[in-house]
């Protein structure tokens, strides 16, 4: 079986992938309904930003605790409990009370996500063999992108017919699909993962372990820089369309669609090759950073779209390789805590990056922002590659697709 379909050999993975597609679609239907509800009630983009902030902050404060918990407790019952709680939160959005239920649900969702993220990471590596993990994560990215596109499209149709309440109910039901899939899985087919000793030091032990992993620290640093300055295209796309490109709302919609298509293509490319190596990580980081710099010089909307497509594909490849290397290159009993750190870095890059890109657009203009951010991320990607070469003690080719997929070499 080709690398792309290797994870589908596993019945448990097939169940999980199907349920995940349903759940992601429901989640994005709820996101659409929430955005519409907040904007129609307040007319304020700041209120929408507050909801995003309330979902992100708990990850920064509680993520490390969630990682320590993930390393000690079995993942499957925890995930069932989390899905049930999320279904209840979706139904709570039906309660009257203005915007306060929305803010409360956003905060509670962030708290759940702080603990759920590391558990999901460990659970995914129990469903497939290490050699198929990269393809499994890449397929997961494809399903997430497909669920987002499908959920937003269907939600856009339904919200005009039923209003937002029906979308909250649909999302609540979608979590039941995940619970059913988890209950239907065969426990004997799962890979047993080492668990942490309750007396191993918890969060402090996780930080000490991470500080002794210089390769992982370099990967996390690259993830932060490229995520904060090279991934906030929702901001820079809008600035380019409304500014130097002289586009319309339809132009922005076109670019958003191209970005989504690129994300799917990137996931399929990585799933098809199965090569989640440090070579791919560094090569992709340099490529998308250089393309970002070039996008600041795009003469038209179509020229900008032609660069957005490979940037979106490369971003998915980069993020998926980061997740794969984190899981394959760390001890199983420490994996939850390291994955929690990845979640914290991702949240920080969003919190820092979006305002930073917005400030650069206001200060230097949209083109200047892309040129500056692209130059910084290109230098960071090259410096990260040099650091990894020295740490690994051997050459890391910048070719995108090299290395044997069956052993997932660095």
Automatic annotation (TrEMBL):
<keyword id="KW-0812">Transmembrane</keyword>
<feature type="transmembrane region" description="Helical">
    <location>
        <begin position="250"/>
        <end position="271"/>
    </location>
</feature>
<protein>
    <submittedName>
        <fullName>Predicted arabinose efflux permease, MFS family</fullName>
    </submittedName>
</protein>
<feature type="transmembrane region" description="Helical">
    <location>
        <begin position="369"/>
        <end position="389"/>
    </location>
</feature>
<dbReference type="InterPro" id="IPR010290">
    <property type="entry name" value="TM_effector"/>
</dbReference>
<feature type="transmembrane region" description="Helical">
    <location>
        <begin position="209"/>
        <end position="230"/>
    </location>
</feature>
<keyword id="KW-1133">Transmembrane helix</keyword>
<feature type="transmembrane region" description="Helical">
    <location>
        <begin position="21"/>
        <end position="39"/>
    </location>
</feature>
<feature type="transmembrane region" description="Helical">
    <location>
        <begin position="338"/>
        <end position="357"/>
    </location>
</feature>
<dbReference type="GO" id="GO:0005886">
    <property type="term" value="C:plasma membrane"/>
</dbReference>
<feature type="transmembrane region" description="Helical">
    <location>
        <begin position="45"/>
        <end position="66"/>
    </location>
</feature>
<feature type="transmembrane region" description="Helical">
    <location>
        <begin position="304"/>
        <end position="326"/>
    </location>
</feature>
<feature type="transmembrane region" description="Helical">
    <location>
        <begin position="167"/>
        <end position="188"/>
    </location>
</feature>
<keyword id="KW-0472">Membrane</keyword>
<keyword id="KW-0813">Transport</keyword>
<dbReference type="Pfam" id="PF05977">
    <property type="entry name" value="MFS_3"/>
</dbReference>
<keyword id="KW-1003">Cell membrane</keyword>
<dbReference type="InterPro" id="IPR036259">
    <property type="entry name" value="MFS_trans_sf"/>
</dbReference>
């Amino acid at each position: 079986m080709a690398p792309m379909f290797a994870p589908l050999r596993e019945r448990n993975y097939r169940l999980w992938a199907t349920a995940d597609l349903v759940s992601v679609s429901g989640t994005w239907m709820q996101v659409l309904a929430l955005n519409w509800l907040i904007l129609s009630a307040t007319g304020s983009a700041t209120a929408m930003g507050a909801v995003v902030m309330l979902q992100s902050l708990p990850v920064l404060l509680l993520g490390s605790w969630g990682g320590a918990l993930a390393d000690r407790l079995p993942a499957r019952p925890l995930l069932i409990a989390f899905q049930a709680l999320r279904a209840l939160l979706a139904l709570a959005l039906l309660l009257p009370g203005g915007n306060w239920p929305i803010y409360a649900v956003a905060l509670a969702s962030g708290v759940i996500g702080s603990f759920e993220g590391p558990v999901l990471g460990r659970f995914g590596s129990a469903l497939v063999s290490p050699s198929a993990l990269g393809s499994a994560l890449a397929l997961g990215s494809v399903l997430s992108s497909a669920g987002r596109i499908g959920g937003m499209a269907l939600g856009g149709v339904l919200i005009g017919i039923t209003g937002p309440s029906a979308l909250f109910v649909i999302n609540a039901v979608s979590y039941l699909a995940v619970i059913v899939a988890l209950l239907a899985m065969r426990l004997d087919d799962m890979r047993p993962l080492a668990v942490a000793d309750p007396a191993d030091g918890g969060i402090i032990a996780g930080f000490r372990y991470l500080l002794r992993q210089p390769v992982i620290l370099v990967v996390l640093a690259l993830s932060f820089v490229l995520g904060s300055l090279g991934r906030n295209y929702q901001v820079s796309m809008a600035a380019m369309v409304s500014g130097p490109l002289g586009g319309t709302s339809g132009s922005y919609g076109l670019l958003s669609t191209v970005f989504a298509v690129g994300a799917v293509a990137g996931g399929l490319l990585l799933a098809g090759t199965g090569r989640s190596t440090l070579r791919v990580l560094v090569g992709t980081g340099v490529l998308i950073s250089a393309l970002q710099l070039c996008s600041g010089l795009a003469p038209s909307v179509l020229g900008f779209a032609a660069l957005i497509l490979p940037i979106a594909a490369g971003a998915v490849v980069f993020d998926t390789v980061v997740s794969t290397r984190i899981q394959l290159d760390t001890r199983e009993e420490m994996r939850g805590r390291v994955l929690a750190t990845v979640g914290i870095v991702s949240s920080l890059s969003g919190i820092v990056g979006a305002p930073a890109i917005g400030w650069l657009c206001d200060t230097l203009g949209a083109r200047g922002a892309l040129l500056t951010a692209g130059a910084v991320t290109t230098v960071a990607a090259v410096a990260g590659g040099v650091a990894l070469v020295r740490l690994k003690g051997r050459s890391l080719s910048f070719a995108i697709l090299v290395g044997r997929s069956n052993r997932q070499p660095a």
